[in-house]
């Protein structure tokens, strides 16, 4: 392992000597190339930072929307329970209670659909980010 490291060190020293022995214009060209690479990486990092902030904001917005939807569902569930208690004595009123149960189940399905929609949006955003990275790389 020490020999391997010594060999790598010799290779790096050789590269340094080559750069030292290069004419000044070659050194300047290499410096410009490295500066350009650095600028591209900084630009890509800035883009990633903006996208991350945007995704974070969107995540918070979706979490607030989900919380308000869950709160609404809880409120509707309480209303449904109260209505069922009031109608418990009347067997003739079972049809409206069943309808209320159906409405509640539909709301739960909508909540599940919203969650899956959010997951789909996240997947599409991730795919979009990856494609942008590939374009930037090319």
TrEMBL record:
Q: Where is region (Disordered) located?
A: 1-23
Q: Which UniProt keywords apply?
A: Coiled coil
One Gene Ontology biological process: positive regulation of canonical NF-kappaB signal transduction
Q: How is this protein annotated for GO cellular component?
A: cytoplasm
Bias (Basic and acidic residues) ranges: 1-14
The keyword Coiled coil belongs to this UniProt entry's keyword annotation: yes
Q: Would you say which domain of life the source belongs to?
A: Eukaryota
Query: What is the protein named?
Result: TNIP2 protein
From the broadest rank down, the organism's phylogenetic lineage runs: Eukaryota, Metazoa, Chordata, Craniata, Vertebrata
The gene behind this protein is Tnip2
């Amino acid at each position: 392992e020490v020999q391997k490291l010594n060999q790598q060190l010799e290779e790096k020293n050789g590269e340094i000597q080559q750069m030292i022995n290069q004419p000044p214009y070659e050194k300047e060209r290499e410096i410009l190339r490295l500066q350009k690479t650095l600028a591209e990486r900084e630009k890509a990092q800035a883009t990633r930072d903006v996208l991350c902030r945007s995704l974070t904001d969107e995540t918070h917005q979706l979490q607030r929307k989900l919380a308000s939807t869950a709160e609404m569902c809880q409120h509707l569930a309480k209303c449904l329970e109260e209505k069922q208690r009031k109608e418990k004595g009347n067997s003739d009123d079972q049809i409206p209670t069943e309808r209320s149960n159906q409405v509640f189940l539909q709301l739960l399905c909508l909540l599940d659909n919203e969650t899956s929609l959010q997951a789909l949006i996240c997947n599409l955003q991730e795919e979009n980010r990856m494609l942008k990275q590939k374009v930037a790389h090319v």
